[in-house]
Design goal:
With 293 residues, the chain is α/β, with parallel strands linked by helices. The protein has 2 domains: 120 residues, Rossmann fold (3-Layer(aba) Sandwich); 157 residues, Rossmann fold (3-Layer(aba) Sandwich), CATH 3.40.50. The chain has 8 helices and 10 strands. It is elongated. It holds the Pfam family Usp.
Length: 293
């Protein structure tokens, strides 16, 4: 199945995800399949309800893409994974602000993000209050997260990179989104001195912060070159920041239309989907987050 797949249910966050997915499918010139799952029997009533929901959303956002509905019984998790197989992208909603002050990625969505073989975009509910940024206290040395002078206002696509193939794929995906939407692409490499091995050709303990930053810029440039980015002049920004990877991305998300990350890597942003870093980005980002395979 090609096109875009979106999970729907009766929640507001699912409706937000549906709206976003319809706009994305229209922008890409592709189809949208809405998947509704649950219960023991996929009754005709569920199908009718899903078709009505999609029809209302198409009118609301002015979507012109072809749509279809899949209503199935059983596990929403398995239904979404099966429907997404071979698609261009899977879209999920993110739960609303919890009592603890964070947006929560539900257990179904979390497992789908982990297991899906295609890019997955998690959409933040537009009706929620601004999400608090991960603060500088989350970094190893208390440094500022991302200087505001490098986060210009206006639409942008932010992508986190490290030295892995996964991040190169993420940059390619983000560049395609930026090209299609007319956005600026901001490529971010976050580095920390804490826990880093000595740089090649140096003695342990000798490299300075400037040395690590220079090395980080070299790695960022390699990722950009390997991705083969083709964007007009002035629409590619390269940012190196001394901060925790999740903190850097969450802070950058405040002025972004989308954040893109790779699913696996060699450290830094490569830790996404391996523990707390992924949860911080997916739970706290102020815009949709796309995880790329």
């Amino acid at each position: 199945m090609r096109g875009i797949v979106v999970g729907i249910n009766e929640t507001d966050e699912a409706r937000e995800a549906l709206d976003w997915a319809l706009a994305e499918a229209t922008s890409r010139g592709t189809t949208l399949t809405a998947v509704s799952a649950g219960g023991d029997d996929p009754s005709q009533g569920r199908t009718v309800w899903a078709e009505q929901l999609v029809g209302e959303a198409k009118r609301r956002v002015g979507a012109a893409c072809p749509t279809s509905v899949v209503a199935v019984a059983g596990s929403a998790r398995e239904a979404l994974l099966e429907a997404a197989e071979g698609s261009e992208q899977l879209v999920l909603g993110r739960r609303r602000l919890s009592k603890l002050g964070r947006l929560v990625l539900g257990s179904v969505s979390a497992e789908v993000v982990e297991r899906a073989s295609v890019p997955v975009t998690v959409v933040r509910h537009a009706g929620d209050a601004a999400v608090p940024a991960v603060t500088a206290a989350a970094t190893s040395d208390g440094t500022a997260l991302l200087p505001r002078d490098v986060v210009a206002s206006g639409p942008r696509v932010v992508v986190g990179v490290d030295s892995s193939l996964a991040s190169v794929l993420a940059v390619r995906h983000a560049a395609e989104v930026a090209r299609r939407t007319g956005s600026t692409l901001q490529v971010v490499y976050a580095w920390q001195t804490s826990g880093l091995a000595p740089l090649p050709g140096t003695w342990a303990g000798i490299p300075s912060g400037e040395d690590y930053e220079r090395h980080a810029r070299e790695l960022l440039d390699r990722a950009v070159e390997a991705a083969g980015i083709d964007l007009p002049a002035g629409r590619l920004e390269r940012t190196v920041v001394n901060a925790a990877p999740a903190a850097a991305l969450v802070d950058a998300s405040a002025t972004a239309g989308r954040v893109v990350v790779g699913s696996r890597g060699l450290g830094g942003f490569g830790r996404l989907l391996l523990g707390s870093v992924s949860r911080q980005v997916l739970d706290y980002a102020a815009c949709p987050v796309t995880v790329v395979r």
